[in-house]
Protein 1
Amino acid sequence: MRVLVTGAAGMLGRDLVEILSEQHDVIGAGRRGPDHCVDITDARAVHALLEAVRPDAVVHCAAYTNVDGCERDPDGAYRVNALGTAAVAGACHAVGAALVAISTDFVFDGEKGRPYTEFDAPNPLSIYGASKLAGEELVRSLCPRHYIVRTQWLYGEHGKNFPLAILQRADAGEELRVVSDQVGVPTYTRDLSRAIARILEQPLYGTYHAANRGEVSWHGFAARLLEMAGLDPGIVRPISSDEWPSPTRRPAYSVLRPYVLELTGRAEVLRPWEEALAEFLERIGRLRA
Ligand SMILES: NC(=O)c1ccc[n+]([C@@H]2O[C@H](COP(=O)([O-])OP(=O)(O)OC[C@H]3O[C@@H](n4cnc5c(N)ncnc54)[C@H](OP(=O)(O)O)[C@@H]3O)[C@@H](O)[C@H]2O)c1
């Protein structure tokens, strides 16, 4: 298949291009390329790109991902996450490409207290979550051949993310304070990329959850990460969300269960999060325990 990836220079996009390239002819697009430069808020440019490339499928990763930034800049959030996504969805439909649109656990309010399946009702608490949900709804109405893939707590080797920031601060001997009252699942971008490859294998369109297995708080994640890297987990102090300065309300419990992948026998690529974290640490040369 010929697959075009938007946001290809981002954290997920870079791993996705590498992993999908094992099976497909992959073209990377985004504000910074690598193969084509496009701003998804320019609908005409998005249509022209898809007309030129004629992909069989598009994996749409480009987004306004700065959650606090979205809260301060709702216009920007809706312009990129809703209208930009609509431009991609409309262009996919026009050229007959299937669309994989990446979405988020932030569409949920975190009140359920048990893992969320694809059949639970969204209720976002933040502008980021609401703008991504608006993007999902536009995808559903504009491009029938879609897979909406919700994921959470992403980290990988490329770009800024939580484990790389924790390791950097621990190495610098800085104080670490991490919230202990938000629970989710850390998800490795390489595992998510493999799950997306599995989802693309069958024409079963609709909404999917794709995250590593298990659950942990951000504080528990940081402590286990430090332990596995051979550092003292005691250097990270648990705090409550109220003690962390942020304009964004976040779900307290947003574990995503990949129920549709389970029902279709394709969930095996989503390992327990500690196994995925071990591979990540090994790949960056930091695995000790
Ligand atoms: N990170 C997480 O924990 C997480 C959790 C759940 C869901 N997601 C979703 O997963 C996807 C990938 O996230 P990520 O963490 O890999 O994000 P990322 O590293 O911030 O990458 C996003 C990419 O989108 C590009 N982009 C932003 N605005 C654009 C525009 N107007 N036109 C074209 N490209 C644009 C960015 O380009 P520039 O580099 O030029 O800014 C960047 O390359 C997103 O849809 C995000 O909502 C992420």
Protein 2
Amino acid sequence: MTGWTILCDFDGTISVEDVIDSLLDRFGRPGWETLEQDWRAGRIGSRECMTGQVGLLDMTQDELDKHLSSLWIDHAFPAFVAKTRELSTPLRVVSDGLDYAIHKILGRYGLDDLPLAANHLAPATPPRQWQLTSPFQADGCRSGTCKCAVAAQAAKTGTKTLLIGDGASDFCAADRVDFVFAKHRLIEHCRAAGIPYVPITGFEDALELLPRLLDGSLLAEHTPGEPALAVTIP
Ligand SMILES: [Mg+2]
Ligand SMILES: [Zn+2]
């Protein structure tokens, strides 16, 4: 088996907006900003931050569902998924966000059957209260979903691994995969760390690049250390 497996971030990569940020803006009780500052300053990990923040959400199920129905995904993501299926390349969504939200949003596009590793959002008591658990956390890691553990596990399958992502939650996984399609802050991380990558603006680019990834030509052009400026997206 010499194919590729794709690990794909959700918030900011598949979705346009960050789901938790948008929920906190709308339904967060006071205190979530302090947790955000503690996380940004490195005083707490994302798991502690989000567990606390989700506990501060004040919303009904209907309010949550209505809000989620207003969030959009990258317009080319459904075509990208169709292409991966046509080319028999497994894609797994690996997210430090909320499983319920991801299923709900992807469901509008008939894509809620994609394999998913994410934090688990569940209603709590009393009503309007919510609770977060992290079934994909790992020992010694402060993230909710340990993407580095998921990437390490994918590497053991004998296939090569592509990561598609945009932010800080993707940094540790980027160090453990064979190639990265990078957006936003992940671009600079890959460049600085010498990780083979191509910068993308969205799934339209990813769709163009996928055949060149699978035929090996992208990887051949991008051995670590080569300047990323040599890349052209057709
Ligand atoms: Mg992201
Ligand atoms: Zn981790």
Protein 3
Amino acid sequence: MTALADSSQPPPLFTAFSIRKVTFRNRIVVTPMCQYVADDGHVQLWHCAHHSRFALSGIGGAIVEATGVTRDGRITLGCLGIYLDEHVGGLKRIVDIYHSQGIPVGIQLSHAGRKASAAVPLKGAAPLADADPDRAWTAMAPSAVALTDRWPIPREMTEHDIETIIEAFGIAAERACRAGFDFLEIHGAHGYLVNSYFSPIANRRSDSWGGAPLENRMRFPLGVAAEIRRRIPAEMPVFYRASVVDGLEGGVTIEDTAALARELKACGVDLIDCSSGGITGPSGRAFERPAPGYLVPYAREVRERAGVPTMAVGLIVEAGQANAIVANGDADLVAMGRQLLAEPSFPYHAAQALGHPKPESVLPESYAFFLERRNFG
Ligand SMILES: Cc1cc2nc3c(=O)[nH]c(=O)nc-3n(C[C@H](O)[C@H](O)[C@H](O)COP(=O)(O)O)c2cc1C
């Protein structure tokens, strides 16, 4: 698996990748990871410390966690928000951290839909209506269908709600531009609002925004993508995180997602970030027992079928594995989460393991200079 073919060249994982005007200096991207410590959506010092760890680690790019485009669109009370102009300053601090190291950074724009109003994971992730009823709110969704029998029934969105939320995504995108983000990601996965419009399991509407026809279920995701594209500079890339399959009988299939990806591409979406699951249960889990690289085949299939760049994610934990994803053309970018939490130095260690001609060069100069001269004797 380990590519040592030409030791004068960086391995595929450490080659640059460009979309529109943004260049990732290597293929390792920090996947969005909620920290659940925001206060009314505002960035805290923790977020800055968390992102600084990655900014100094040699990654190629990063995506800030799911960030609510409306206050009620947050998953929990600890989620970041971009529903106030006052959020821009805090988000800019995160952007500045990455930009100080020349690293492009995106933000995941999100509406939680029927999964909104949950307790934070550390407090059980149960419906807030059970855990803290005074602070709970009523979630909205394409249909008045609860996530599971343990969850409250959401309010079915009116045509006016649909227009308002699509516009909120657009306004959020403009705020993200003001904060200095280099690219955006639409959260279209894990059973949250955009995903729930696309999935026949959550979307039972009988109007033009839902029901059996794929065309109807695509309307909301495409509306969000078009609204965002209309409001941002042409040089700014837009990613879309999809749950490629629901993993449930009667749910979204790979064919559905490939069709959506083609339409998203026509709306100006540049890359599909290929996750899975979450339409009725925990995010990202369409499989009983995820194994390393379990979602990579989806990234490859979407890439081939829709002719669109993809990002692979899901238990990518080892240098050879990450490198092979790029070398084999499975995906263009490799998103990593928990392995980077455990080992922020993964890019440097991977560069060493893969025979990069100058592994230290992936790190900031102030570190690289001394590491190059380190002698173990
Ligand atoms: C702490 C934590 C928070 C997460 N928050 C988000 C999020 O904000 N948006 C999202 O799309 N996925 C989120 N995820 C899922 C990750 O982006 C990723 O898809 C998943 O962890 C699988 O990648 P990994 O095996 O490299 O961790 C989160 C995962 C973790 C562990």
Protein 4
Amino acid sequence: MNRTQKARRTLDRLREEIPTPETELRYINPYQLIVAVILSAQCTDKRVNIVTEDLFADYPTMADLAKATPDEIYPYIQSVTYPNNKSKHLVGMAERVMEAYDGEVPQTSKELMTLPGVGRKTAQVVLSVAFEVDALPVDTHVFRVSNRIGLVKKDALTPRKVERQLKRIIPQDEWGEAHHLLILHGRYTCTARSPDCDACPLTDFCTYYERLQRLPDPIDGLDASRGLYYCSTTDRYFDEPAYKTDRYGVRQIVCPVSGSMQVFHTKTGETTKKVPDFRVN
Ligand code: SF4
């Protein structure tokens, strides 16, 4: 199956699982959306929705926010990540929108990216969600899920590369929907720490799942008193492992004598082999 077919099948199956693929941020206009998206960087939508309720009640318009100081905004958003920077960005963004764009959130990526706190991803989300411009923003979930499923090539190790490759295999009028489907799949099923493959409809073609299946089975009855690790190639126990980077760029534990990756934790019997999990650094 080529990547275009994989993308088609992925979106078809995710549509069945996720009937309303849309942002979970609460907003009623572009002003509220851009504020919420700035606040959501490295923070959960749930947390953002909690803080924006009071923030929007007291600062209902861009003009109101532009008149505030970062110190006044800070108490509203102190429970989100990076509240110091974000309060400065919010006020700076509102000031610039008032000065340069008559109080209206601009509708091009270039203009949006001139606003404090607005990078490429934030700009793309605002364009896609508020103005229905065809955009495919790549956040940490889209990045991880696209790589795991194998929708992108092995060299797609930056969000920008993932975005470019996805745009080539997904029809333009489906970019916005694909963005939400992949985010929600990553948030609730294919999570960073423990993907719930048992509940996933994509196992028959997911590259990550296939690699997980190829990992060696655990070995029963290892003697942990003889060493932390066991190499099944040399039938040898050891405490001090060596390391090697595999062909997927993952640093693996290897046997210090043979260099074999057939190494197991003696306490659990589990393999030490790791499958790349594609986190955005
Ligand atoms: S099979 Fe597992 S790794 Fe693959 S997309 Fe589904 S949850 Fe993620």
